[in-house]
Every structure is written in structure tokens, then in C-alpha cells.
């Protein structure tokens, strides 16, 4: 299976009048989300399952894809790496799964899958990490297929 982890693009800072979940993308974040969405759309299979945190900034980021997606509380701001892997049905999902979520959780998933550790890789705002699950010698392992950030496009 392929698992793509896409961190939301740049969002406004929290204020006393808004909750963390209400933070919206900045103008730069909107531009970056559109650029990354184009890159992803050029590569994603039509049947990809897209799971998105309910936070406004992730909803806006995912909307740039102009594809149907499911809002899933379990991949929200308080998610743990294990929650992400369970929601994605790693490594046994029948389809490519794209998760639009948050740091440090996504970085924790990257570290867990690619190194087996929990040191928490840093996933840049708006970046996508594409990880492929492969079976070799009766064991599942993860291989990094691509890592792309908006400033690389």
C-alpha cells in the first residue's frame, strides 16, 4: 500500500478569540496548498482514500485537491502516530491512503515507519511524504517514495 502524509499548509497564529481548530490558512498557505495539490493530483490514483483532520487549516488544505475526502476525528490535532496508522489500515489497505494532518504526529509516523524510532521527523508545513509498504521475506517494511514541499515545486 501507499501512505501519503500531507501536513497542512501555513496557517494564521492562534489568538485568544479562536481555538486551535479554527485557525485558517494564510494567503501563502492557500497558494502552497494549491501547488502541492496539483503535484499530488498528477500522481494520486483515482481511488485514493483521503482522510482529513477536522481542523479548519487541514480542511482548507485538502479542499485544494478538489476531490472527495472524509473528515476523521481520529487524525485530528490530538492524534498519535498509532492513530494515523490504524485509520490508514497500514500496511494492509487496498487503496492508496492520503492523510492530511498535523505536526508532530505526522513526523512521528514518518520516524516510526522509516526508522522504527520515535524521535519525530520534522514534516514541513505543506509538505507531503509518500511512503510505500513493501513485503519482502515475509515481512512488511516501509520505503520512502517521495518527499515534496511547496518550495520545491
Break the fold down into its secondary structure elements and pairings.
Blueprint: E1 2-7, H1 27-41, E2 49-52, H2 56-63, E3 70-71, H3 81-88, E4 97-101, H4 105-115, E5 128-136, E6 139-148
> Globular, elongated, flat, extended or rod-shaped: what is the shape?
globular
Mean pLDDT: 94
Fourth-level CATH superfamily: Phosphoglycerate mutase-like
Number of helices: 4
Would you tell me which CATH topology applies?
Rossmann fold
Distance between the termini: 25 Å
Which stretches of 5+ consecutive residues score pLDDT under 50? none
- The succession of helices and strands, N to C, reads EHEHEHEHEE
Judged by helices, strands and strand pairing, the structural class is alpha/beta
Count of individual beta strands: 6
| Radius of gyration (Å) | 15 Å
Oligomer state equals single chain
The biggest sheet amounts to: 6 strands, mixed
Strand order of the largest sheet: 3-2-4-1-5-6
The total tally of domains equals 1
CATH class: Alpha Beta
Amino acid at each position: 500500500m501507499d501512505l501519503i502524509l500531507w501536513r497542512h499548509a501555513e496557517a494564521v497564529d492562534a489568538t485568544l478569540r479562536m481555538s486551535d481548530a479554527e485557525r485558517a490558512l494564510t494567503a501563502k498557505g492557500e497558494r502552497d496548498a494549491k501547488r502541492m495539490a496539483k503535484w499530488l493530483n498528477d500522481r494520486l490514483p483515482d481511488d485514493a482514500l483521503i482522510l482529513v483532520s477536522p481542523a479548519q487549516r487541514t480542511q482548507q488544505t485538502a479542499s485544494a485537491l478538489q476531490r472527495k475526502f472524509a473528515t476523521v476525528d481520529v487524525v485530528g490535532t490530538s492524534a498519535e502516530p498509532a492513530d494515523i496508522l490504524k485509520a490508514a489500515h497500514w500496511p494492509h489497505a487496498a487503496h492508496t491512503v492520503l492523510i492530511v494532518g498535523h505536526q508532530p504526529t505526522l513526523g512521528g509516523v514518518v520516524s516510526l515507519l522509516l526508522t522504527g524510532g520515535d524521535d519525530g521527523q520534522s514534516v514541513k508545513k505543506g509538505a507531503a511524504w509518500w511512503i510505500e509498504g513493501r513485503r519482502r521475506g515475509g515481512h512488511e517494511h516501509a520505503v520512502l517514495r517521495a518527499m515534496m514541499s511547496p518550495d520545491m515545486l
